[in-house]
Amino acid sequence: MESIELLINRKKVKVEVDSNTPLLWVLRDHLSLVGTKYGCGIAQCGACTVWLDGEPMRSCVLPVSAVGKSAVTTIEGLNEKAEHPVQVAWDELDVPQCGYCQAGQIMTAAALLKKNPKPSHDDIVAGMSGNICRCGTYHRIHNAVKRASEIASASNSSKKK
């Protein structure tokens, strides 16, 4: 066991864990941040997606020792009031069915929109392709990413006035 200091959702935390423990289990079992889900354990489904310095990362295969001084953002830290444009669009379009994949989907979508604020249909398909939805709500997910882009654009326009 090692004492490891992390920056999670803009807060410094210390955990006593084996350095090879996947970040996912540190988040869920040691920090009670259970929004990030375990899906496959081999970085193939996207349910465990968090941001590492703003980049989407699969936390189920990332050893906590590899995090270093990087900032980790989980679904709980995306927006304290769940008012991120992606979260608003998800709610507005009633995207989730079972909801299991949603945290990973939302974190991936938010990262996509941060890099590409006005993605095309193909950009959305490519950007979201690594996240699996067992319920098959891909059409609603796609529409929500598009809607989140519109919400963010309108918000940015009103801030400029």
Automatic annotation (TrEMBL):
Protein name: Xanthine dehydrogenase
Species this protein is from: Aquirufa nivalisilvae
GO MF: 2 iron, 2 sulfur cluster binding; metal ion binding; xanthine dehydrogenase activity
SUPFAM superfamilies according to UniProt: 2Fe-2S ferredoxin-like, CO dehydrogenase ISP C-domain like
Keyword Protease among record annotations: no
CDD domains found in the cross-reference section: fer2
Top-rank taxon: Bacteria
EC number: 1.17.1.4
This protein's UniProt keywords: 2Fe-2S, Iron, Iron-sulfur, Metal-binding, Oxidoreductase
InterPro entries in alphabetical order: 2Fe-2S-bd (IPR002888), 2Fe-2S-bd_dom_sf (IPR036884), 2Fe-2S_ferredoxin-like_sf (IPR036010), 2Fe-2S_ferredoxin-type (IPR001041), 2Fe2S_fd_BS (IPR006058), Beta-grasp_dom_sf (IPR012675), Diverse_Oxidoreductases (IPR051452)
